[in-house]
Every structure is written in structure tokens, then in C-alpha cells.
Amino acid sequence: MIGGSTIEAELARLAPWANPAAAITPDERDARMDRACRFTANSGADALLVNAGASLRYFAGVPWGPTERLVAMLLAPGRKPVIICPHFEIGTLQADLAIAAEIRTWQEDEDPVALVVDSLRSMGARTLALDPELPFHFAERIRVAEAVRLIDGMPVIKQCRMIKSSAELALMQQAKSMTLQVHEAAARILRPGIRQSEVEHFIDAAHRRLGASGSSFCIVQYGEATAYPHGLPGDRELQEGQLVLIDTGCRVEGYHSDITRTYAFGTVSQDIRDIWNVEKEAQQAAFDAVRVGETCESVDYAARAVLDKAGLGPDYALPGLPHRTGHGIGLSIHEPAYLVRGDRTPLAVGMCFSNEPMIVVPSRFGVRLEDHMYVTEEGARWFTEPQHSLEAPFG
């Protein structure tokens, strides 16, 4: 289970995913834009401006990240979407674009905001809902132009992206299943003296062998470094009797996985075992608390109640849980809603969350078990089977 193999042997065992999930269909994208238009109108806005990034990919299939050049989509009820992009990018845009849209381009010495303002005026829009990921300087220039009143577009985008369709769930399931298989392989290559960087490079290569474009991120920590939620700098060598914490993920059609395992390499002390068991109980309590109509924060409360009973915390005090119990996930690795005190978003069918109530014992060790779950009418359902035990993390 832990150790006993080699990097070469484990890579040789991996092959491209046999039954890849289907891509998002044009009909589903049309339905997404219809919902966005409806939510936009309900918000009091006449149009929604979506910046390059995860939300533009969600609606239009364009997998571009934001840069200093404005790339965006204007979406208005009853009108064809308008995509605004640099003229020299038009060929790439047309190849990536998964919806029917009007494309309006700007040259390098032209002002793209003027193109946005002109488009809004031609639509007769008076109120514009803005993607919260639009850079401030673009938003401010739209405001100064006095073409429209600006409002926050987060509620519109959140309502659309929070609830995953069956097609989205299938893509996420594939990503998470792939990463769990990589985790299992990574555990088998461990040996005394192996560096963190060697494990990280293996995990990236293993994701590629399964058909992903590599790891979307990777954290490998040993011993005391596990006490830091996102690790410490450096490239440590593994020693007998240390905890191993590995947190990694990949993307399938843009949809993320993000799974953490914490296990022992050799024999560890009883207090580590006790904390591991509390972590396991807290993760299960969070899972059991998921009910349609309950608030997101109620799941965080359930996990913390287990920690309080064990004498940890309270709140964010250490030893204890230093962060929220979980986050939404989809085309962004962290997205609304959040399993944290103060997020009173009602749980609804199709919401997806990480479940990771990490326990940190400062300057000694940390334990994080992270799996993902989605909301059904009957409660939560796991994407991946949680860790079995400290010594046998994969059953």
C-alpha cells in the first residue's frame, strides 16, 4: 500500500482513461445562457459582462485566462451574445468558441472599453451586471463613460455555476477518479530519502499518463511541514516514522479535482493516531450534515462540533481547524458557495464541495483528509471513497 514500488513501474501501469466523460453540449450551453439572461433580468440589469476566465469558459467554451487585454462577453436577454476580443486573436477565438455569437474586435492601438460602451448603447442597456473578476480599471472606465449604471454580477454568475448538471458531475467524477488513482500510485513509490520534488514530478507525469494535461497543482509535505495547510518551502527527504501529506488535482475539460491524503510512512506516535481519528470523524460529520435546504455554514458547524468535543479549537484556535471546512468546486478550484460560518446559502441539489476540516498541531504535524461530495435529494454523495485508515489509505 505504502512503498514497495518504483516510479518507472507505476508509470508503466497507467494508461489513458478508458471511458472519458462527454464534453458539454451546445444545448447545455444555450440553457446556461438562458438562465443567465433570466437571472440578469431578475437582478435589475439589462446586460451581463463576463470576463475571460472560468465564467467565460462556462458560458462560451472559451478556455482563456484573463490578461491585460480585454476579452469578454456581453449577454443580454433577447439578443445574440457579443464577444469582444483583440483582432489578432480572432482565429483562435473562432476555433475555441462553442456558441453562436457576434464577434467584435479591437486593434492594439484602440480602446476595447469604447467597444463595450458602444455595444451597450446599441442594446439600449442602462444597467450592467459586472463579472467580479473583471479588472477594476476596465470597470472604472465603463463607469466614467456614463453609459450605464453598474451592479455586481456575482449573484447572477453564482446562481448559474453553483448548481452542476449531470454532464458537469460526470466530468468532475472523471477528474477526481483520475487523481485518486494517481494518489494510490504515489503512495507506492515512497521510500526513505525520496525528495518532495521527485514525488511532485511523478504526480504530474502520472496525471499526464491518464490523459490530463498534468497536475493543476501539487503539495507534497513530510513531517512537521504537514502542520502548514499549504506547506513550507524547501525540498525535504522522507524519513521513517513521518506523516506524509499529499494534496493534488487535475482538470478534465476545465473541471477540477482536489484530493488530499495524510498517512504514515512507518510507525507514528499515538497522539498522531488520535488526531487522525478525530479528523476522520469530523469529515464524516460534515458529510452527514448535508441536507437540502440547510445552510452551508451548518456543515462547518457539524465538523467543528467534533473538534470541540475532542478539546480542539475553539473556532480557528490551534490545535484545531484553521480554515473553513470546505469550498465549492467546478471550473474554478475554489468557487461559491463555501462551507464556512457566515455563508447562509441554502444547500441545493447539484452543489459540489470539498470536505476538508484539517487539524493542525502547531510546529508538530497536521492532518487533512480531503474528498469531494455533491448534494442530492437524499443528502451528500461522495465523488471519491474517503481514506480508510492511517496505515491503509486506499483500503
Short description:
The chain is α+β, with helices and mostly antiparallel strands. The chain has helices at about 5-15, 25-40, 55-60, 90-95, 110-125, 135-145, 155-160, 165-190, 195-210, 270-290, 295-310, and strands at about 45-50, 70-75, 80-85, 100-105, 125-130, 150, 215-220, 240-250, 250, 255, 260-265, 325-330, 335-340, 350-355, 360, 365, 370-375, 380. Belongs to the peptidase M24B family.
How many separate helices? 11
The largest β sheet comes out as: 6 strands, mixed
Spatial gap, N to C terminus: 9 Å
What is the arithmetic mean of pLDDT? 97
User: How many domain units?
Assistant: 2
Helix content: 25-40%
- Unreliable spans: none
Shape: globular
Name given to the CATH architecture of the largest domain: Alpha-Beta Complex
Strand order of the largest sheet: 4-3-2-1-5-6
What is the chain-wise order of helices and strands?
Answer: HHEHEEHEHEHEHHHEEEEEHHEEEEEEE
Keywords: Hydrolase, Metal-binding, Metalloprotease, Protease
Family: Belongs to the peptidase M24B family.
Pfam family, one: Peptidase_M24
Protein name: Xaa-Pro dipeptidase
